[in-house]
């Protein structure tokens, strides 16, 4: 199969999804119409097989995740997702893999209302680079800077599940089948919080998506905002699958594990009532995990009120103790 047959079979769909795509796949570049009064939001994230996803990952999950990690960045900016490009390297033309990959990719694209408008296809070690684009009303984009002393810190969903899913994929831990399936699903099929991000426009003082773990990503938000934080361990949202493992996993996966793609954001005290009405209709739970303080750095309070020191990353923890 040549490159153009591959593109037309798996990526160029006959019906356009969006009216604002003047020219999509098939020209030298895409032409997309940006409305007046909106800022273009652009992000890119690359996944390399064996580095960013285990080689055992289903093709459909790779397609989903490659787009999801990009849409998560748009969500953290408060943007609506509109268009994306796909640069794909594959070692050979494996039709079953390409079919699964494009199915996972387009299922999420269609649910999120964004359209594939172009890309590049080459032979090489399996690598997926997506550039996602979105729109946000001028001046309303959410940023990492903006958190102020006294603001509350929230996270969506639950933390640490994807890191435990990775430990399971690597055979480092064994758990009940149902929990294993849930945790592996959290690793392979993160759900970008696009609706939540949009609802946080004009409401959150700062936001970031949690891709490298809470400690790292909240740390970026604090640095950008020039403030510190006090986070309470017992307020971290954990899934029941995580809780079942907590005797072995401790807090490290929730604090330092990557790949959750939840949103972490701050809200001023006077806007909390407004946030509660957002939370009532959100697709995921929102939990307050602490407060912004003036003292720089991230201070983690243990269940007994003493200062907690994270020992190591979740995976190392399992390596050393299982
Ligand atoms: P060019 O040589 O002009 O850069 P290509 O031959 O690389 O164009 O690609 C032909 C068309 O197919 C272009 O419109 C390009 O954007 C699109 N395309 C190539 N690979 C992909 C892909 N993996 N997904 C979507 N569109 C693709
Ligand atoms: Mg060209």
Q: How is this structure best summarized?
A:
It contains eleven helices and twelve strands. It is an alpha+beta fold and 322 residues long. Strands 8-10-7-11-9-12 form a six-stranded mixed β-sheet, with helices on both faces.
Number of helices: 11
**Structural class, from helix and strand content?**
alpha+beta
Strand arrangement across the biggest beta sheet: 8-10-7-11-9-12
Q: Largest sheet, if any?
A: 6 strands, mixed
Number of strands: 12
Oligomer: single chain
Shape: globular
Work out the radius of gyration. 20 Å
What low-confidence regions span 5 or more consecutive residues with pLDDT below 50?
A: 312-322
Order of helices and strands: HEEEHEHEEEHHHEHEHHEHEEH
Determine the fraction of residues in helical runs and give it as a percent range.
Answer: 25-40%
**If you average the pLDDT, what whole number results?**
95
What does this structure look like?
This protein has helices at 3-10, 59-76, 95-112, 161-169, 177-188, 194-199, 214-225, 240-249, 252-256, 272-281, 314-321, and strands spanning 21-23, 31-32, 38-48, 80-90, 115-123, 127-137, 152-156, 204-210, 228-232, 262-267, 286-293, 297-301. Strand 1 and strand 2 (31-32) form a beta hairpin. The chain is 36% helix and 26% strand. It has 322 residues and is α+β, with helices and mostly antiparallel strands. The strands form three sheets. Strands 8-10-7-11-9-12 form a six-stranded mixed beta sheet, with helices on both faces. The chain is built from eleven helices and twelve strands. The chain starts with a helix and ends with a helix. The model is unreliable at 312-322 (pLDDT under 50). Bound molecules: adenosine-5'-diphosphate and magnesium ion. Residues 7, 11, 25-28, 86, 88, 116, 118-121 line the site of adenosine-5'-diphosphate. Adenosine-5'-diphosphate binds at residues 7, 11, 25-28, 86, 88, 116, 118-121.
């Amino acid at each position: 199969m040549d490159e153009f047959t591959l593109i037309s079979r798996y990526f160029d769909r006959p019906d356009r999804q969006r009216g604002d795509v003047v020219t999509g796949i098939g020209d030298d570049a895409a032409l997309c119409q940006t409305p007046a009064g909106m800022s273009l939001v652009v992000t890119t994230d690359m996944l390399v097989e064996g580095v960013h996803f285990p080689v055992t990952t289903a093709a459909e999950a790779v397609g989903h995740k490659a787009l999801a990690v990009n849409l998560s960045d748009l969500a953290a900016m408060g943007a609506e997702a509109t268009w994306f490009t796909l640069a794909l390297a594959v070692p050979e033309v494996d039709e079953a893999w390409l079919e699964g990959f494009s199915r996972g990719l387009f299922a999420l694209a269609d649910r999120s209302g964004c359209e594939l408008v172009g890309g590049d296809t080459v032979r090489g070690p399996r690598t997926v680079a997506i550039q996602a684009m979105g729109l946000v009303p001028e001046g309303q984009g959410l940023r990492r800077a903006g958190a102020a002393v006294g603001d509350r810190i929230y996270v969506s969903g639950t933390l640490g599940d994807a890191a435990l899913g990775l430990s399971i994929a690597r055979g480092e831990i064994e758990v009940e089948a149902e929990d294993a399936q849930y945790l592996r699903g959290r690793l392979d099929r993160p759900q970008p919080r696009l609706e939540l991000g949009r609802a946080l426009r004009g409401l959150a003082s700062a936001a970031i998506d949690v891709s490298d773990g809470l400690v790292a990503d909240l740390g970026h938000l604090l640095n950008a905002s020039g403030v510190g934080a006090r986070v309470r361990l017992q307020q971290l949202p954990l899934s029941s699958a995580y809780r079942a493992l907590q005797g072995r996993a401790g807090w490290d996966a929730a604090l330092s594990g990557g790949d959750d793609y939840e949103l972490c954001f701050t809200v001023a005290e006077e806007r909390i009532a407004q946030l509660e009405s957002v939370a009532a209709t959100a697709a995921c739970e929102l939990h307050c995990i602490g407060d912004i303080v003036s003292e720089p750095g991230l201070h983690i309070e243990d269940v007994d009120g003493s200062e907690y020191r994270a020992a190591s990353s979740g995976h190392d923890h399992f390596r050393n103790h299982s």
